[in-house]
Design goal:
The protein is of the alpha/beta class. It is about 40% helix and about 15% strand.
């Protein structure tokens, strides 16, 4: 079965009515025939038919055993960290999403869970950084926002040799491009807010466990902590998955074209995109993914916040906003937005420069997107000329 067919037909027809759209069970509780005797559902925090369908679908798409849906991507991350105890250590990718860094550093470190950050683009760095207390290796691949790519299969072998769990944030790639569990990972997480939902109209998080036992532990945490995904939002993610394959294909095509154009622009210092042969781990990305995704980042030769701010406030089609993965193109300045919670010196050391701009390339005609960026660069150039002239006078 092809990937596209699997994506579409992983969503079942309703067995009760034949509805081709999954019903939204907007209920808090379920009538029981006798105490403890029910139709598989008793209280909607513990389970809900709409959410259960989504959880089954994402488990199938990621080739896992158990899927668990949460109220946000950070709630999904939080549930995974709750597998650990005081004294355990996390080995995390250095170029990490700012929200994950904030959760690890400001919440869990005070409970005695230490986090060590390392450049995971070289699996040898992971091997060298593991300690006897390491229990969880945390990857984003590609990373947010510098698009670093890590060798999932190689790091999975290191994790297993050291009795560590490997969790991969697969948000940027989505199961349409990459399935980390088939490469040896134990857990996959998603901010379903992004490509899985695909329309910038929901907040959701997902975890998929490779093994049933591990999945049941996460499921227990979901019920005990209560950070569940609502029925309507579950339905929105299911609806998004129906078009995931086609959307991701176009995201990839547009992003590749934008990245190649950016490489030729005189104002650009570096372009980060796994689909470029110049990317550090282009060969690994090609090996473990079916495509290179819809995110492109770049730095400016004028490596200042002011230059980046001028650029991101000069576009028309690229809207300045947090988040990514929707049909409309977005851009952001991570140093002031998504990664502001990371100390400047740590952020820069991980490659997130002051002038770095992240593009979420949407589904518009790519020629229009390139023209939009071109006029923004020109507007900034003219503004800089005027400012320089004013200063000299």
């Amino acid at each position: 079965m092809s990937n596209a067919t699997q994506l579409i037909h992983s969503i079942p027809v309703d067995p009760l009515t034949g509805s081709i759209s999954v019903p939204i069970y907007q209920t808090s509780t379920f009538v029981q025939e006798a105490p403890g005797v029910n139709k598989g559902y008793d209280y909607a925090r513990s389970n809900n038919p709409t959410r259960a369908t989504l959880e089954t679908v994402i488990a199938q798409l990621e080739k896992g055993s158990v899927g668990i849906a949460f109220g946000s991507g950070l709630a999904a991350i939080d549930a995974v960290v709750k597998l650990l105890k005081a004294g355990d250590e996390i080995l995390a990718v250095d170029d990490i999403y700012g929200g994950a860094f904030r959760l690890f550093t400001h919440i869990y470190e005070k409970f005695g869970i230490k986090v060590n950050y390392v450049d995971t683009t070289d699996a040898g760095n992971v091997f060298d950084a593991i300690t006897p207390h390491t229990r969880l290796i945390w990857l984003e691949t590609p990373t947010n926002p510098t698009l670093k790519v890590s060798d999932i299969e190689a790091i999975a072998k290191i994790a297993k040799a050291n009795s560590c769990l490997l969790c991969v944030d697969n948000t940027f790639a989505s199961p349409a491009l990459q399935q980390p569990l088939t490469l040896g990972a134990d857990l996959v997480i998603h901010s379903a807010t992004k490509y899985l939902g695909g329309h910038s109209d929901l907040i959701a998080g997902l975890v998929v466990a490779k093994e049933q036992e591990l999945g049941e532990k996460i499921k227990f945490i979901q019920n005990a902590s209560g950070a569940i995904l609502a029925p309507f939002d579950s339905w929105l993610v299911i609806r998004g998955i129906e078009t995931l394959h086609l959307r991701v294909q176009q995201h990839c095509r547009n992003a590749q074209a934008v990245a190649e154009w950016l490489q030729t622009h005189p104002a650009i210092d570096q372009v980060f995109y796994p689909g470029l042969p110049t990317h550090l781990n282009h060969a690994i990305a090609k090996k473990q993914s079916k495509g290179f995704g819809g995110i492109v980042s770049f730095t400016l030769k004028n490596d200042t916040e002011a230059a980046a701010t001028a650029l991101v406030t000069s576009t028309h089609y690229f809207k300045l906003a947090e988040s990514l993965g929707g049909v409309k193109s977005l851009l952001c300045h991570p140093a002031q937005m998504t990664h502001k919670s990371i100390p400047a010196e740590k952020r820069r050391a991980a490659g997130v420069a002051d002038s770095l701009v992240r593009l979420s390339v949407g589904l518009e005609e790519v020629a229009d997107l390139i023209a939009d960026l071109d006029q923004a660069f020109e507007k900034v150039k003219q503004s800089e000329k005027i400012n320089a002239s004013t200063i000299s006078v």
